[in-house]
Amino acid sequence: MNAPEKPRSRTRFDTIGKPRRRVDGRAKAIGELRFADDLVLPRMLHAKLLRSPHPHAAIESIDVAHAQAHPGVHLVLTGAEFPVPYGIMPVSQDEYPLARERVRFVGDPVAAVIAIDEQTATEALEKISVQYRPLATVASPEEALASPEPRIHDYGEQGNIHRNQAYEFGDVEEALAKSEHVFEDLFFYEGNTHLAMEQQAALASIEGDGKLLLATSTQNPHYLHRQLARVLQMPAARIRVIATPNGGAFGGKCDPGNHEFVVTKAALVLGRPVKICLTREEVFYQHRGRHPVLMKFRTGVTRDGRLTAMHLQTLLDGGAYGSHGPASTFYTGVLTPVTYELPRFKFEACRVFTNKPACGPKRGHGTPQPRFGQEVQLDKIAERLDLDPAEMRLAMVTKPDSLTASWLRVGSTGLAECIRKVVDMSGWKAKHRKLPAGRGVGIACSAYMCGAGVSIYWNKMPHSAVQLLLDRSGQVTVYCGATELGQGSDDVLASLIAEALGIDPGNIRCVTGDTGITPIDLGSYSSRVTIMMGNAALQAAGRVREQLSAAAAEQLNTLPERVTFSRDRVFAAEDPAKSMSFIEAVALAEAKFGTLSAVGSYSPPKAPGRYKGAGVGPSPAYSFTACVVETEVDPHTGWVTVPKIWIAHDIGRALNPVLARGQVIGGVYMGLGEALMEEQVFRRLPPKLSGALVHRNPSLLDYKSLTSLDMPEVDVALIEDPDPNCPYGAKEVGQGPLLPVMPALANAVYDAVGVRIDEVPVTPDKILRALEKKSKGETPRVGPESFPAVPYPQPTFVLPPWEGGDGNETRRHDSTAVV
Amino acid sequence: MTLRVNGEEQEVLFHSYKTLLEVLREELNLTGTKHGCELGECGACAVLVDGEPVLSCLELAVQCAGRDIQTVEGLARGTELHPLQAAFADCGGSQCGYCTSGMLMTAKALLDKEPAPSRERIKEAISGNLCRCTGYQQIWESIEEAARRMREARP
After folding, report:
1. Out of A238, A318, A419, B64, which residue is the most buried by the measure of CB atoms under 10 Å away?
2. B104 shares a domain with B127
């Protein structure tokens, strides 16, 4: 047998690490790539949704007769046609494609019209008559805690609390009491949305063999496939979901959407293709974006700035539905201990329902909020202790192959190198606390996971699978359920197969994101694709290599393990003159073994934590990032200008540096937008206009984001320390680089003008308010002033690894016995 | 009526209230031109009308009679990419690709007038085109690279 390739030990590559045009680059540049709304089928009809004008109301009756009679209308659907609820997580099946008895936010879909064109469907929507009985609304987490009735949902912990979680790793109060300093700070992170350029679109049709086909802009065709089978009550084998190339997603296309159930149901009823494209306003209602989170940090430190313990409390505004909420709630805490050594950690988190569009996963899922608080608090600690914030961080980064107090395994880490690099690139030492008034620099770090360690639904099957098919023409086709969002997953897939087989990535055909054809990959979320799809791809490629090597070795008169693959040729390692083309090797192998195909699959390693809840946070590897932001703050207007950002990202290995750099800069861009201006906010209409709670800015004009003129130059360093769990050592890059930008910006504003903005976004009005406080001699800070009483449960108590724990829950008094 | 799109005269029948974007995408099947808002806020639908960038979602198609309309489909010469297209593909100017057509057409209008624009000019020229993936930097670099290649190709 051919010895398996040891990817980490490889140092010379044909494809990996070389700047290259991505495999789908040409199609994008010529406008040939077909997004969902570009698809057209004969006899296609169009769907439009009627949405609730009330934030919270009971539906007393719906009369669709006039709409049904409108010329050009083929079908009107209401909640009556959809008895089965859905939800991305098994524990939050709380949505219906069309509301049945209750609407829960302005924009909740209640009916759908399917007509010959969008114009006709829109006209007919106005002929649907819905009688609503308005209910009391819940606008904020504080209101949700104070108003257990009316309940927005009849499930959850209690009242309007959706999820309530508490974990304690070692006795935190004891450690805080013994700490030389304890810092207590409150932070607030406002919600914001993904704002992908492509609005969600979907086209449902019945294929010639009678099966249902849905082509849709989704990140997770596999999860959607399961949900369609459930809601439509038909066998999954009779449903095919094609994830069309997404025009950006950022987490916003993870959840199944109401519109996807509506068009599939309509296609099944009518036997004709039915398409829908959400308007930009509707995309703001579909949302599933960043949760607004209120945070309280109590952090103990030694006088030289080493962490002793942290007690973190979070309160999430979940909006009207569960979405990924249980996971989002975990993620406001679980990755906190990954960056720095933290001997003890307590984490309490609560997600409430409110009458607003549902929040969910956005790039960084739940982690940017506590990262913001943690990294701004570290800046305050460094200042109080008269330490350099970069040096302080450097002194306490987590060590490679270590465990956190919460039993996460940190594998490789390049964080120290990232910090040194950004300090060096930015000229930090000459700038921090040294720039003239009005100018400043700030530093922050982060860590992110390379794929969630467990699936969204419990199962023991692989997380990703890849199939390779080769034939005598030399054609290599690779099949995988992973989905191209723009992040470059097809290019990752092609480059890994190309490297393993020594061929040109441009010659590989990628077939991805199609549940009717491709083996299952769980989806493009949690930065899992490069690692999980990549490892599955390398296993498949290794198996094909064995066959090719065995066949070629005979001809080359060498041993199979001496056969090497490079530049479309197959060689004997000891004598490169003995060689054949890759196509010849494929033909020999096909003759010897029959049709050439192989599958590969991947499941993440088992996590060391064994307590209930230990499944959220573990990952095959973690990426690390450090970032320095420079600011200029105008003290008269509060306006913040960012001339430059330096960022170093521990990527393990950059498979295609062009794409890796693009992901880093794109993450910085999105983070800077969140830091400075992006916010999804709501207001109450005056009582005479119903008093409804409505979205303040559901348009691209009102929802502020950075333009080309607002975006600074970004200097990127890719730190490459290959991780043994990752394909050729490559870790994630899609989400991690966003995380340190917001706190680095807030810290830079403090360095510039000496005011603390403990909220995101950091807007000019907040800076002016803080400057005014400063001039009056008050605490120069704008941020939350109080944290409400949250009925957190008794924490699950787990001893950290260094206190004799075994990863299981234990009774608290055991800790004193063991210590 | 007759529309001249990418140098070809096209007979097309449509309601007078249809925008140029709708006619291009739905009547002429030129789906390379995208939509992100239908309100003139995002620039994804930018095409060239008589060489000037125009937001096709705000332009009535009837207003374009007798004018020269260029879309992304008309940029390449046969299978040979326009230098802007090649540079976007090579330099990371396109991630998801949804804003790319509008970016390319806006950049073409710039380079047609200014063969060697400064980065500041580039930033200004595309400031009406939103991109959520790239952070713009690799778009600036792509346009600079294309300008360089175009200058080199000229004797």
Report:
1. A318
2. yes
- Residues in contact with A817: Cβ distance below 8 Å, sequence separation at least 6, in sequence order: none
Q: B105: domain range?
A: 83-153
Pick one of 3.40.50.1820, 3.30.365.10, 1.10.3720.10, 3.40.30.10 as the CATH number of A165-192+289-453+611-782.
3.30.365.10
CB contact (8 A) between residue A714 and residue B135? yes
B35 vs A37: CB contact, 8 Å cut-off? yes
Token pair for A524: 């493009």
Say how many CB pairs under 8 Å bridge A and B. 167
Which residues of chain B neighbour A25 with C-beta distances below 8 Å?
88-90, 94
At the second CATH level, the architecture of A462-602 is 2-Layer Sandwich (3.30)
Q: Tell me how far apart the alpha carbons of residues A396 and A389 are, in angstroms, rounded to a whole number.
A: 11
Final residue belonging to a domain, choices B10, B39, B74: B74
Judged by CB atoms closer than 8 Å, whether chains meet at B137 and A486 is answered as: no
My answer on whether B64 and B25 are in the same domain is yes
Question: What span, in angstroms and rounded, lies between the C-alpha atoms of A355 and A153?
Answer: 11
Residue by residue, pLDDT tens for chain B (155 residues) are 999 999 999 999 999 999 999 999 999 999 999 999 989 999 999 999 999 999 999 999 999 999 999 999 999 999 999 999 999 999 999 999 999 999 999 999 999 999 999 999 999 999 999 999 999 999 999 999 999 999 999 86
Location of each CATH 3.30.365.10 domain in chain A: 165-192+289-453+611-782, 462-602
3-class secondary structure, A435:
coil
Per DSSP, the residues of A610-659 read -STTTTSS--S-EEEEEEEEEEEE-TTT--EEEEEEEEEEE-SS-SSHHH
pLDDT computed for residue A2 by the predictor: 41
Half-sphere exposure of A524 (CA within 13 A, CB side): 31
The verdict on B62 and B107 lying in the same domain is no
Domain identity same for B112 and B138: yes
Using a CB-CB cut-off of 8 Å, the residues of chain A touching B129 are 708
| Cβ distance of A34 and B31 shorter than 8 Å | yes
Yes or no, beta carbons of A35 and B34 under 8 Å apart: yes
Residues of B in contact with A718 (CB under 8 A): none
Q: Which residues of A touch B130 (CB under 8 A)?
A: 197, 700, 705, 707
The H or E element containing residue A118 is helix A118-125
| pTM, to two decimals | 0.97
pLDDT, one tens digit per residue, over A660-674 is: 999 999 999 999 999
Residue of B nearest to A28 (CA): B97
Report the CATH number that the domain containing residue B37 is assigned in CATH. 3.10.20.30
List the beta strands (DSSP E) in chain B: 2-5, 8-11, 46-49, 52-55, 68-70
Interface with A, mutate which of B88, B137, B144 (most A CBs under 10 A): B137
In angstroms, the CA A310 to CA A405 distance is 11
Verify whether the Cβ–Cβ distance B90 to A25 is below 8 Å.
yes
What's the whole-number average pLDDT of chain A?
96
Residues of A in contact with B53 (CB under 8 A): none
Q: Do B135 and A711 lie within an 8 Å CB cutoff?
A: yes
pLDDT per residue as tens digits for the range A116-150: 999 999 999 999 999 999 999 999 999 999 999 99
Cis amide prior to A712 (ω within 30 degrees) = no
In the CATH hierarchy, which fold is given to the domain comprising A36-135+199-245+253-286? Aldehyde Oxidoreductase; domain 3 (3.90.1170)
* Smallest Cα distance from A411 to chain B, Å: 29
Element (H, E) at A214: strand A212-216
Judged by CB atoms closer than 8 Å, whether chains meet at A29 and B32 is answered as no
Q: Chain B residues with CB inside 8 Å of A245's CB?
A: 96-97
